[in-house]
């Protein structure tokens, strides 16, 4: 018996000649993207252009049973026919696709790791789902992201082709938005509170969010497997940093939630790109002077440890807003450590380049730079880490005193309880520690080790090329190596804490363990620690292979390749 014919699918008809506002006004449109200039000159808000809408092919009930396609139908919107009719089918379909994406990548009940709340709090798709952001460019980016996820989930050729078409149109629309924003900033670069300033700020926000969404875009079937650091994710992450370096904080619109999420993404991606390229992108734009560098996560950690004063306001301010006169100008993490690290790495590379002895003036300048970095490590960062560790983790655990905390089904735990491994690293941080504080502590230790490796590289360059003693800079090389050795061992104690988490964290953990390994190799006096790192990396790789084979989760973070490139900076000779 022949099966019933499926209805024909029409994906919508794009309006290329007119924007929605000009079509409603019945005037000729200049077709500028992403916003019609005729509307802007007339004082109207351009509603953008019609985009392709996805219509899911309906299947027979008996054919859909037991397949993933059965879950792709938009759910019933309401029992009331009036309310259901008021919701456009395209909007319902878009909402269904977004909910499918969020459900798959951020499950309510995690399948393989404890839930980390800050991943959803700092997720741009979640932000878009919870906010009213009427941007045609951003809507196109969300549609493309959801379509790419759907195509990979179903492995349908027609969905893959549709997602690829959406991606091409998104890149073309983004290119037009960048050109328009650049010309607007050239004509009027200052944000003075006018309507034009708000339009420019909203445009910059849409561009920033779109670039970040492109950086987490999943690879479609048939795409080339480009290795890092030239993969699309790393390129888009670098593009976001370069956009901010060129235009400053113009993407801040005054919306507290949106500004915090975007700035958090900027901090994570910007620091990773700067450290990987060992280049200071800088914050030369004057608008940054009114933007604090401290974020909520670091704020909570360092207030508790005394790194900043307890009564310092942490309110997010727009670039044009004055700083409250009652606010104490406390030292912030952004200004004291993270921002100068990339500049320090760039100075080290310039100092180490070439051959022959250094001039005395250059030696004096570099000695002052590394003494300043050492002062921050010695008097600010190290005391705060010691205090915050006790508050965040509590007593350490060992394989002998806490055997129930080691799961034989986790490869890292099996390795940690072996006599050889337990002899080198006997104590570990508790897995019940606060994720926000624990993650901050791990990242801060990695950056402290990076700073110490940069100091040691600079000392080694002066010692070898000018035949100077190890203390030529005013710092004793053995003291720096001893501090870096302690920090590297503390990083190894985070393995147990991170071993129960997701596939993405496992891939990062493998890189994080490689960082102290590079230091131990350069140090030359820690062969046992090098062997421990090799065994731990092998155990982590085995867990990654198991999770990949089980299909448990995807890695959408764009920073894996960038972080892998920065790991080489932990070699100092």
UniProtKB/TrEMBL annotation:
Ribonucleoprotein keyword on record: no
GO molecular function ontology, one term from the record: zinc ion binding
Record keywords: Nucleus
Domain of life of the organism encoding this protein: Eukaryota
Domain Zn(2)-C6 fungal-type: 19-46
SMART domains, alphabetized: GAL4
SUPFAM superfamilies in UniProt: Zn2/Cys6 DNA-binding domain
Name used for this protein in its record: Zn(2)-C6 fungal-type domain-containing protein
Organism of derivation: Neohortaea acidophila
């Amino acid at each position: 018996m022949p099966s019933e014919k499926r209805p024909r699918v029409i994906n919508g008809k794009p309006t290329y000649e007119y924007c929605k506002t000009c079509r409603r006004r019945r005037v000729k449109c200049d077709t500028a993207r992403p916003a019609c200039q005729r509307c802007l000159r007339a004082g109207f808000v351009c509603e953008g252009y019609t985009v392709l809408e996805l219509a899911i092919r309906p299947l027979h009930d008996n054919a859909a049973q037991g397949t993933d396609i059965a879950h792709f139908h938009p759910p019933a919107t309401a029992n009331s026919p009036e309310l259901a009719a008021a919701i456009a089918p395209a909007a319902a379909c878009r909402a269904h696709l977004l909910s499918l994406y969020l459900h798959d990548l951020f499950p309510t009940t995690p399948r393989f790791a404890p839930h980390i709340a800050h991943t959803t709090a700092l997720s741009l798709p979640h932000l878009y789902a919870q906010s009213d952001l009427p941007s045609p460019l951003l809507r196109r980016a969300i549609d493309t992201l959801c379509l790419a996820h759907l195509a990979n989930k179903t492995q349908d050729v027609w969905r893959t082709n549709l997602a690829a078409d959406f991606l091409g149109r998104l890149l073309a629309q983004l290119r037009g938005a960048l050109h328009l924003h650049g010309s607007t900033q050239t004509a009027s670069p200052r944000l003075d509170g006018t309507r034009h300033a708000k339009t420019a700020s909203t445009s910059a926000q849409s561009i920033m969010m779109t670039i970040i969404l492109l950086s987490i875009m999943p690879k479609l079937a048939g795409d080339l497997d480009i290795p890092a650091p030239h993969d699309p994710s790393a390129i888009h992450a670098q593009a976001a940093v370069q956009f901010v370096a060129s235009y400053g904080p113009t993407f801040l619109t005054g919306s507290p939630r949106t500004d915090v999420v975007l700035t958090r993404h900027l901090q994570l991606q910007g620091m990773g790109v700067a450290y990987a390229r060992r280049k200071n992108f800088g914050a030369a734009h004057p608008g940054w002077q009114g933007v604090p560098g401290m974020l909520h996560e670091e704020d909570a950690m360092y207030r508790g440890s005394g790194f900043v004063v307890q009564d310092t306001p942490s309110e997010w301010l727009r670039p044009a807003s004055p700083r409250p006169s009652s606010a104490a100008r406390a030292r912030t993490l952004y200004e004291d450590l993270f921002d100068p690290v990339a500049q320090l790495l760039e100075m080290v590379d310039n100092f180490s380049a070439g051959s022959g002895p250094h001039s005395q003036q250059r030696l004096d300048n570099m000695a002052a730079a590394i003494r300043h970095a050492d002062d921050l490590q010695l008097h600010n960062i190290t005391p705060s880490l010691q205090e915050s560790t006790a508050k965040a983790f509590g007593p350490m655990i060992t394989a002998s005193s806490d055997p129930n905390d080691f799961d034989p089904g986790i490869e890292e735990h099996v390795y940690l309880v072996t006599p050889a491994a337990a002899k080198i690293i006997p104590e570990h941080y508790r897995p019940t520690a606060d994720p926000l504080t624990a993650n901050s502590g791990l990242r801060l230790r990695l950056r402290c080790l990076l700073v110490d490796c940069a100091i040691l590289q600079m000392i080694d360059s002066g010692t070898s090329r000018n035949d100077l003693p190890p203390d030529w800079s005013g710092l004793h090389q053995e003291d720096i190596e001893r501090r870096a050795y302690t920090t590297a061992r503390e990083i190894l104690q985070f393995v147990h804490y991170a071993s129960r988490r997701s596939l993405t964290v496992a891939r990062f953990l493998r890189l994080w363990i490689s960082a102290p390994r590079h230091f131990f190799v350069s140090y030359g006096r820690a062969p046992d620690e090098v062997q421990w790192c090799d065994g731990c990396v092998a155990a982590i790789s085995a867990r990654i292979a198991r999770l990949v084979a089980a299909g448990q989760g995807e890695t959408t973070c764009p920073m894996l390749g960038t972080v892998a490139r920065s790991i080489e900076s932990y070699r100092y000779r």
